Amino acid sequence: MVSSKKSWLTSLFIALLVVVTSVITTHWTVRRALHMQPPIALAQENQQSHPIIKTSDFQQALRDVSAQTLQGVVRVDAISIKKVAVKNQQSPWDFFFSQDFFNRSEDQGEEREFRSGSLGTGFVVEREKNILYILTNYHVAGEAHEVSVEFVDGRNFTAEILAGDERKDLALLKVDVGSQNNDLLPLPLGDSNSLVVGDWVLAAGSPFGYDFSVTAGIVSALGRTGGPRSNINDFIQTDTSINQGNSGGPLVNMHGEVIGINTWIATQSGGSVGLSFSVPINNAKEALPYLKSGKTPDYGWVGVSVLDIRSVGGESYASSAGFTQTKGAIIATVFKGSPADKAGLYPGDLVLSVNGTPVNNADRLVYLVGSLAVGSKAQFDVIRDGKELTVSVLVEARTKDAGENTQSKSWPGVIAFPITPENRKELHLDNNQTGVIISSSDPGSPLSFLKPRDVVTSINGQKITSIQTFYRAINAPNVNGRYEIIFKRDGSLIEITVRKE
């Protein structure tokens, strides 16, 4: 009995010893771990770091901005009407039973009306008593015959198109909402010049008919040029998801201020891939007074067509043209009688700047010229035949058909490429073949007889060996205005004499 009791006490003592040892070991292990944090963690305590973002505050900001923005956003339904003459369908029995069968004209028929609809977005920019002014894109409603707008709560109104600005892709709608809708207010307009790459932005619209959707993203880049319909905006690029139906909707900052109008996307699939472009709201502010009065702003025009060096061969083109850089815009064609023609801008000139503002590419030049005040004189810094010079051009107003129906007035009216090892092989040209290769020609222009793949070898007896010699011959003083062009087509030499005028 005593022996059994001792055995039990011994077992209990051993168990307690194991527990105490385990606790002590764990305690010292934890203390050691706490005192052996990575050096970076210790260093951060003594460094100034970025503040931790409070997710709850950011979340609430997204909610507040979204809710406020949607109150001023509208779905835009635009209807275009086209009347088309449709020939009457004749029954085969008319030959036997209709007295008018042989008297019918082939053009006889009735005029039918075809209606096509488009969906977009807009937002309220101004209110005067019961009248709302709603801004959207020109390609949404600028050429429509019937327009209606719907607010997020379902209120629907018929809209009147006041005016459109195709060059900046803007259209202003006018809506009478009556005296019972005092809660429909304009969205605050911000300053798009204050944007910085990395700023958070929200986009609202009706993508694919999913009305009043909000997407978020950041400003990816600023001052983007180009875009559809010969736009002259310096677009805001974002990664917000924008799709068909978003056009004309607001792009807002985290204060709920509109800083852009969502306009187009770059995509190969037809859907958003994170390359979205918006018209800066400051551009729209400049146009609004004109649009509100039912007019379209006047934009500058000098009368040239331009190219990017990079689009016509990059360094190989620059070398052949005598340029030491690939930035700038090449004047490919000058329209006869235009401001550029009168001032002395020549085909082949490389435009470096306009009024001191650098020109990096052709789109930038188009934007800068469009922004010039009509009647003002603009200073074009150019490189011509290896020399830098400045040409002063008196800016005229761009007419609606500027650039259209003017190809017959273009000089030289062709785009030429230098001969390179690649295209020499492709066109099966001899190793000693010199000249320039024609890429395209303007119909009706003096050199419209030239076709793609033709190789111009001589102009007025001057051998053409490069882009530089080509433009030197084209621009050379010519008393009688006659140009003897020798070119090779399908291995045969052809000589044609043309007049510039």
UniProtKB/TrEMBL annotation:
Keyword Protease tagged: yes
Alphabetized InterPro entries for the sequence: PDZ, PDZ_sf, Peptidase_S1_PA, Peptidase_S1C
A biological process term (GO) from this entry: proteolysis
Keyword Nucleotide-binding part of the UniProt annotation: no
Record-annotated PDZ domain positions: 305-361
Source superkingdom: Bacteria
GO molecular function, one term: serine-type endopeptidase activity
Keywords on record: Hydrolase, Protease
SMART domains recorded: PDZ
PANTHER family found in the cross-reference section: SERINE PROTEASE FAMILY S1C HTRA-RELATED, SERINE PROTEASE HTRA2, MITOCHONDRIAL
Similarity remark: Belongs to the peptidase S1C family.
Record's protein name: PDZ domain-containing protein
